[in-house]
Amino acid sequence: MITEKYDLCIIGGGPAGYAAAMRAIDFGKTVLLVEKDKVGGAGLFNGALSSKSFWECSNRFAATKSDLKEKGIAYDIHFEEARKVVEAAVFERKFQLNVHLNLLQRATHCKLITLDKGTATLLGDHRVKVVKKKQEKIIHAEQILVATGSRPRHLPSVAADEKIIFTSDGIESLEDFPESLVIVGAGVIGCEYATIFSNFGKTKVYLIDKADRILPFEDEDLASIVATNLEKNGVTIHRNASLARLEIKDGKVEYELTYTDGRKEILHVEKALLSIGRLPNTGNIGLEEAGVCKDERGYVKVEDTRTSVPFIYAAGDITANIALVNVAEREGRHAVVKMFGPPVKPLVYRNISTIMFLNPEVAAVGMNEQDARARNKPFRVAKIDYSCIPRAIAMRKTNGFFKLIVEDDEEMTVLGMRAIGEHASSAIQAVALLIHMNKGIHELGNMMHPHPSITEGVQECARMLLGKSIYKSSIFKDKLKCYRWADGVATPLEDL
């Protein structure tokens, strides 16, 4: 029996669900937000905010320790201090989200949103069963958004007990820095945790990489800087290595590797972290019963956030799109506009900006060179080393580069950019806007950037491609690169 009616029922209170609820309020719609655990989801707990707070803490500690060491002063940190920093950040954001939501529910002028802490199951025909504290009800919703997020992927042969063998859901529950840690998976998350623990300098870190280099989806020049810095920090990278076995023995971890050259190796560490991707939370929520189609990997099939059922939408990690907080939020808001707003253009994913919290930090938008070459169409590239950027010199942080990739045409329409170095994430958005607008680099090259700033490096890349740079790539060959790629061959673009 239907007991309540809503314009929109949102299943999942993570980044996608919360953002969608707030957007629905803008349209004056009644919303039921159902969350089984914690409002904020993986974007707040055991995920983006918590891990990045951990990274910030490790960076500050490493920098302070290095500065004081030069003065002969010893500096140390206990795990409890680092954990308190992370907990404070998470609490502040959690407090904001929950207070905001509670006040919205109580506001006399806004009786639009209801939060139910429990589980939701699709029943079909606009009906949703909500169970909370052993009580259940069936509600009717004109529109439904499924935003149940994802969970860490496990290895079938490895039992992650979150005490000795961890996933990203449990690694921050550590009670002390482990003496040694093996990380399975050399993608972004694996490399981020390798950076964090090596920054603190109390844990011997091992990183297992199936390929011959880490971050295989990124260009080799970028991955090389990250790998070199990790190794300088004491990280051992097992390249070309497959995990044959990982198990708990006598309260510690034993793992066996098989290398592509036939070698085998058995190693022992105190703890292990599985960082091998995530799986969508699409089970036990009634998708099949409601007629919602999934792909062969279990992700919900969507067309611009709409599923195979016209009144059911999906956003965030349960779709096969990019699993990022900013993408989830954007998809949730977009879905609501499609439900209740005027006609809107489909979402575009080619200009999504991302940050990798490594050493140094990495920012990316659009294509890298690997992507551009895969298209087998000519393109142009400009690259400037951080050592040529005045702000980087002033900061004494000259490890890194900017790389700008454009179409091989008169407009030089922007395809993508990669930045690695100090303040890299602050320099990416102008290029993301150009990609969104399908524009070339002429405006970027002619703008007056603040001086001294890291973003001047982006401008100098544009100037190189336009043939009017301050430093000439034909002279500073070890600092600057400017070339055209076509038919598998890179040809320098002469600027003199």
Structural account:
The chain has 496 residues and is α/β, with parallel strands linked by helices. It folds into three domains: 2-45 and 86-151 and 279-340, FAD/NAD(P)-binding domain (3-Layer(bba) Sandwich), CATH 3.50.50; 165-276, 3-Layer(bba) Sandwich (FAD/NAD(P)-binding domain), CATH 3.50.50.60; 353-492, Enolase-like, domain 1. Helix content is 29%, strand content 27%. Strands 1, 2, 3, 4, 5, 6 and 17 form a seven-stranded mixed beta sheet that branches. Helix 2 (48-70) runs antiparallel to helix 3 and helix 2 (48-70) runs parallel beside helix 4.
| CATH hierarchy, class of the largest domain | Alpha Beta
Arithmetic mean pLDDT: 92
The second-level CATH architecture of the largest domain is 3-Layer(bba) Sandwich
Q: What is the radius of gyration?
A: 25 Å
How many helices does DSSP assign?
12
Domain count: 3
Could you tell me the number of beta strands?
A: 24
| Category by helix and strand content | alpha/beta
Helix percentage? 25-40%
- List unreliable stretches of 5+ residues: none
**Which fold name corresponds to the CATH topology of the largest domain?**
FAD/NAD(P)-binding domain
Note the gap between the termini.
79 Å
- Beta-strand proportion: 25-35%
Sheet of most strands: 7 strands, mixed
What is the CATH H-level superfamily of the largest domain? FAD/NAD(P)-binding domain
Inertia-based shape: globular
Instruction: Name the quaternary structure.
Output: single chain
